[in-house]
Amino acid sequence: MTFKARLRRHTALGLTLLALTGPAAAQTNSLVDISVVNRNTGETLRTWYHHGRSYVAGNPGARYGLRFTNHTGRRVLAVVSVDGVNIITGETANYNERGYVLSPWETIDVNGWRKSQTTIADFEFAPLSGSYAARTGRPGDVGVIGMAVFEERKPLPPRPLDSEMARPMPDIARQAPMMIPAPRAAAPAPPPPPAAMMSPAPAGRFASGEAAGASTARADEKLGTGHGASEWSVINIVDFVRATNAPQAITSIEYDTWAHLVANGVIPAYAGHHPRAFPGEPRLSYVPDPPPYPER
């Protein structure tokens, strides 16, 4: 097998986003942090740990985003899944799918299902029956967010010239197209595409429409991630060659409603705040007497 045949080429994505900082309530590995942010409130959801697994509690109907921080001085690729579905391609998730490229020390927010190079469909917590995975016939892995991180392959040292190398060589320096953040000083993005381009995937791909999925949802259903409203989000295509076939780090965060996580013993029952009928502390209603003069 030639060197060119051994060179694996993959595609990745990056966001046109300024670096963001936030609370360090993240699931951490040595390469990249991932945390879940409630976009309705700006709150970084607390991570709970139970029997070696990580969990966050979500509220049905709330939009959320995923915040990634690269802790290395080199580019890395994060292949991300929600409910067992790749968030860029919509395919059943595997390590060889496309992902987001993070520059050295960069933090980015990923807020939805990638619909095009300019739009996403918001992540929003929804009952299992209303989740994107269930509506596309894949309900078995609803309730988990996954991240597989790959380091970038280092350039190979030049080979010495000899009679064999003197002949024209195949072009192996130019890597397959991928996507990374656009330059900060880039010209303003073009106007949003027509409404048809920004609309959700055709209803024919789903078992039922949005309204039907919402109407049949049960109050006791497990929490999943729905296919929310369209939002403007720009990406660029860039090159990235993975250093290895397998990821260097894998992180997963499971999620469900607060009530379900309490019922399953993930969140202690006493962790919740219960309302008080009389929250004020008792106090005197009048000015008290001063202390008596000391006896002479």
Structural class: mainly beta
**How many independent structural domains?**
1
Task: State the distance separating the first and last CA atoms.
Answer: 107 Å
Give the ordered list of helices and strands: HEEEEEEEEEEEEEHEHHEEEH
Report the sheet with the most strands, covering strand number, pairing sense and barrel closure.
9 strands, mixed
Radius of gyration: 25 Å
Strand content: 25-35%
Q: Helicity, in percent?
A: under 10%
Low-confidence residue ranges: 1-25, 162-217
The overall average pLDDT, rounded, is 76
Number of helices: 5
The shape is elongated
Total number of beta strands: 17
Strand and helix layout:
Blueprint lengths: L2 H4 L3 E6 L11 E2 L3 E7 L4 E2 L3 E3 L2 E5 L5 E8 L5 E7 L2 E2 L12 E4 L4 E4 L1 E3 L4 E9 L4 H4 L8 E8 L43 H4 L11 H7 L6 E10 L2 E6 L8 E8 L1 H6 L33
Parallel strand pairs: 1-10, 6-17
Antiparallel strand pairs: 1-16, 2-3, 3-4, 3-7, 5-6, 7-11, 7-13, 8-9, 8-10, 8-14, 12-13, 13-15, 14-17
Task: Please name the defining characteristics of this protein.
single chain; 296 residues; mainly beta; nine-stranded mixed β-sheet; eight-stranded antiparallel β-sheet; 5 helices
Protein model, in words:
The chain has 296 residues and is mainly beta. The chain has one domain. 8% of the residues lie in helices and 32% in strands. The chain contains five helices and 17 strands. The strands form two sheets. Strands 1, 5, 6, 8, 9, 10, 14, 16 and 17 form a nine-stranded mixed β-sheet that branches. Strands 2, 3, 4, 7, 11, 12, 13 and 15 form an eight-stranded antiparallel β-sheet that branches. The longest helix has 7 residues, at 210-216.
